[in-house]
Amino acid sequence: MENHLFEGIFSPILAANGSQFTPLRLSTDNLAKPPPAKTAAPDDPYKEEPWMNPEFLDTLIELESKGDPKARGDLKNGVHRAWGILQERPPYVDQANKIRDKWGNPNNDAETQKRFGSYAARFKDAPRFTYNDRDNPERAKQIFRINMQDLYNQFVDRHGRPPSTLEMASLHHLGLLEGNDSDSKYQAAFQEADVRVKARKAEEAKKKTSKK
User: Fold this and answer.
1) Angle subtended by helix axes 181-211 and 54-65, to nearest 10
2) Triad 140, 195, 49: Cα angle to 5°
3) Cα–Cα distances in Å, from 126 out to 63, 103, 151, 167, 194?
4) Sign of torsion, CA 7 10 12 17?
5) Domain interval for residue 134
6) What DSSP character marks residue 88?
7) Per the domain annotation, does 171 fall within a domain?
8) Cβ of 10: how many Cβ atoms within 10 Å?
9) Can you give the pTM of this predicted structure?
10) Which residues partner with 20 through β-bridges?
11) pLDDT for 57-68, tens place per residue?
12) CA separation for the pair 141, 44 (Å, rounded)
């Protein structure tokens, strides 16, 4: 039976033991073709900033304010300290400004700037954040985004791993003060808010489908 796997003759050569043999050229015509490569899954657009994933952020906003930009909380001595969709307090705004200033300071080394993330660099020449910005959803998210990069990186340095979704929620709520009773209650409330958000989105999707 003719075998087309071997085609052509090469010049004789010596084997390792001194004997002479003639190698044959191997044809690939009849070899099984490898399966086509699978199409790679698209990269997660929130891989570097998981706290900006809408599934997470929408739940956090639902928990903090139910989406009300004028929400007020944390009443103390007749003053509401937490404002806006993410219920940010004045020190949270101050910290975002400090990070912004570090990016604007050429004396900081690359490692310092890496800790705070490239997003903060966008604001080094922009106006500083004000306490009133907490009532502006877009500015409130910018403050949140800058602070969460710093908190996320500190968590990774401390634990050697990225935080879970619930731990990310706690980072917003308590910073790096982990593991106390308030922390566990907040995480439970986050899970309840997540159920509400998913139910609402499912209902909205159902209504859109029925209109088609």
Assistant:
1) 110
2) 40
3) 30, 11, 22, 31, 34
4) negative
5) 51-201
6) B
7) yes
8) 10
9) 0.74
10) 14
11) 999 999 999 999
12) 20
